TrEMBL record:
Organism of derivation: Ardenticatena maritima
Top-level taxon in the UniProt lineage: Bacteria
Alphabetized UniProt keyword annotations: Membrane, Transmembrane, Transmembrane helix
Identification of the protein by name: Membrane protein
Transmembrane intervals: 20-40, 52-74
Residue span(s) of domain Sodium symporter small subunit: 9-86
Record NCBIfam families: Na_symport_sm
Amino acid sequence: MNQQQQEKAQAYWRANVRLITTLLIIWALVSHVAAILLAKPLSGITFGRIPLSFWFAQQGSMIIFVILIFVYAWRMNKLDREFDVHEE
């Protein structure tokens, strides 16, 4: 592997790690902050007949996690094309 290919591979890996870190931070904020830290302020708000903080803890974090999986797949496909490592 020559120097240019090695730098390209390192840039690809940095972009991948940056994406994973960003998505994990979003998931942690939704599941931890909305469900636990904001439980009291959100408990007065209801979604259906369920307090919003309970909804975030039980359903919201899982729904956000599934959405983040699709976002990750979409962004990785875009990164693969950008760094020319995509599959045909």
